[in-house]
Structure formats: structure tokens, C-alpha cells
Amino acid sequence: MKKIAVLILAFSGCLSEAQVNENNDKACQCSGSTSCCEIYSLTSITQSLGAMGEKIANMAEKITLLEAKLQNTEKEVLELRSLSLTGGKPEVAFSAALRESGSGNTGPFTTATPLQYKKVFSNTGNNYNPSTGIFTAMVKGMYFFRFSMFNNLNAVPSSVVSLMKNGVRLTSVWDTSGSDSNDMGSNAVVIPLEVGDNVYAELQANRIVYDDSMNYNTFSGFLLFTM
What we know:
Layout: H1 2-26, H2 34-85, E1 93-97, E2 104-106, E3 113-114, E4 119-124, E5 128-129, E6 134-136, E7 141-150, E8 159-165, E9 168-175, E10 184-193, E11 198-203, E12 209-211, E13 218-226
Antiparallel strand pairs: 1-4, 1-13, 2-12, 3-11, 5-6, 6-11, 7-10, 7-13, 8-9, 8-11
């Protein structure tokens, strides 16, 4: 929106300049016919519009560069914030279970949905957000992540959970067939993360997981080393 507003202002300013030139042209003194003034006026307007287009293009390029610098600054702020919270030495670790209390199914949802692990056991560095279920890296480095899944208690199991990084599937655990309905599994990865990268466990569309006070479904991770 800011970029559009700036471009509109630039367009308005240049258009005003073109209108002024047009008014001046109307008052021109030509030794020939009226068409002489009209041709001269159109030529002046065309030149003004060309200059206006060049100015807008330059402004758009500068705004794009500023946006890139702002994104880099935001990443640096996140990393500095993490360092300040840990006294200069990055310490990142978290672990959480799906339900804070009670028991029952989570899902199904019509679309793939990040699981919100509400019962937080630890969250050093505050990189994990229990309101969204998303871990956001504040330090560039190599990380370990693990998640577990317990299938629903229906007669036919229907559970699929995937570990995601920035919307890309890394690994999964699933149970969608068989007569037993009390299976569980887990999976883990070691991956590099840049500042601002997101990692989360995602329940696939039309699937269900079950949990209770035993905390079968968990999501954990920690920083191995910086890079």
C-alpha cells in the first residue's frame, strides 16, 4: 500500500507539471496556424509524460531496495533480541504437548492446519508460539526437531501429521489403515534455519489425532549450533 501511495503522489505531481506546460503552450505565439500551437503542446505533454514515467520507475526501484533493507534489518533485530535474552550466547530449546487439559480429538479440518501445542514444558528463547504452533528461528544455525502422533480412537484410524518448514513438507507420520486404533509414531529431522524461518507440525486435511492427559502428541526442538 505504501508503494502504491508513493507512486500515486509521484504521478499526481508529474501530471500537474504536464498540465502547467499545457497551459503555457496554449498561450504560445505562433507565426503559423492554430494547429502549430496544438502540435507544439502535444509534443510538450508527451515529453512531460515520458519524464514522469522515468521518475516513477526510479521511485519504484528505490522502494524495492528499501523494502529489502527493511527485511534484513528485521532479521538482525530478531537475532539481536535472542542474543540479548540469553546474555550474548544463543540458547534455544522448546517442548510442548497438544492439550493443556481434557481429552478428545483434534480435527478434522477441511485444509491442512498447523497443530497448536498448548501445554508448554519449556521455551527457552521464546522462539515457539503456542498460540499458532509455529517455531520461528531468531538465530541462524543447525536445529533438531521431533514430533510424535497418536492416532484417533475410531474403528478405522485416520491420522496424518507432517513436519513443515516454510510451507514445505520435511517428513511425516501416518496411520490410515488397520483394525487397531491405538498406534502412535514419531519422526525427527536435523535442518539448517535462517533467521525468520518457520517450522511447525501440520495436521493434514480431513485427518484426526487424539490426545489426553498422557500427552501422546508432542513437538520439540533445540539449537545444535550457530552458523
